[in-house]
Amino acid sequence: MIESIAIVGATGAVGRIIRQLFEERDFPYGKITFLASQRSAGTTITFKGEEHEVKLLCPEAFDDIDVAIGSTPDPVAAEFCPWARERNCVVVDESGYWRMDPEVPLVVPEINPEAADQHKGIIASPNCSTTQMVLAMKPLHDAGKIRRVIVSTYQATSGAGVQGQADLIDGSRAFLDEADYEYQAFAHPIAFNLIPQIGSHKHEGYTSEEMKMVYETQKIFGDESIKVCPTCVRVPVENCHSESILVETEKKISVDEAKELFDATPGLKVVDDLGNGEYPMPNQCSGDDNTFIGRIREDLSCENGLAFWCVSDNLRKGAATNAVQIAELLSKTQAAV
Questions:
Q1: pTM (2 decimals)?
Q2: CB-CB contact of 185 with 167 (8 Å)
Q3: Exposed e or buried b per residue across 227-255, where buried means at least 16 C-beta atoms within 10 angstroms of its C-beta
Q4: Which of 60, 230, 270, 295, CA to CA, is 20 to 30 A from 258?
Q5: Active site residues
Q6: Which portions of the chain are predicted below pLDDT 50?
Q7: Are residues 210 and 246 in the same domain?
Q8: Are residues 308 and 329 located together in one domain of the fold?
Q9: Burial annotation 35-48 (CB, 10 A radius, 16+ → b, else e)
Q10: What residue numbers bound the domain in which 58 lies?
Q11: 13: closest CA among 31, 38, 32, 36?
Q12: pLDDT for 333
């Protein structure tokens, strides 16, 4: 059991889900502390039927804290993680700041739990679009070794935070009312539109979000030979990221074999009956910790190719749930003590 744990960014969208998961999963701890920026510090939140004051995020806040789960913007994570580490507190960080640091393990518990044992005070949780893809890749990679992945993402507005969701709802209302609306989270209208850019220009025409999927996938599997070609698109969906994934394996995997592999993998759920119109859709997957797989079929253009559709709640398994699972690893191995 972790004696003392903190949630950093406790009042944010992901922080609220982390609190919910602590209650749902009966997470073992002795004492819990909620931390946030100056804007939210001093407010109260209800947790397990009790009122808790949100404390200010500062270096001294990590005194006597064993583990902290952080859901903050990158600049905040860059600042607070060293504060915690200096005080022998292990941070499970949701931001993108530490993911590619060679001394920071990047962990999805269903794939590389052993990597968490190698931490030096910080453990990173991957980008939400990466997490669901590598979960789906894992059984196929184990069975046939994946050479290449082509992925197109259809990412929900919740991935851009509370303001992203507000832009979708309020922007859609304004569009229907033929009224003006000033978007805050997006550079272009998201209502009744698709935006084929998430993140900044990064590398040879790829965006930062796309390159995260490349580098993070290779790091999680410990295999730089896996080639990843991503296209990331923001879509007018409130929650749950969807992905069209095509993998090419060294050893051929049939559709029936793939379904068996997916079914046997914890955290994956197959919904695949095209004839009856059954396949994963965002409005059916929101609020669930599973990653859903459907439309499984052989690639008509490649002998060892397999194509499928993947949907996951980006705020849960893509963020909060994965971080809580990492903290559970620390609790079980007592690596943080």
A1: 0.94
A2: yes
A3: ebebbbebbbbebbbbbebbbbbeeebee
A4: 230
A5: 128, 241
A6: 335-337
A7: yes
A8: no
A9: bbbeebbeeebebe
A10: 2-126+319-333
A11: 36
A12: 75
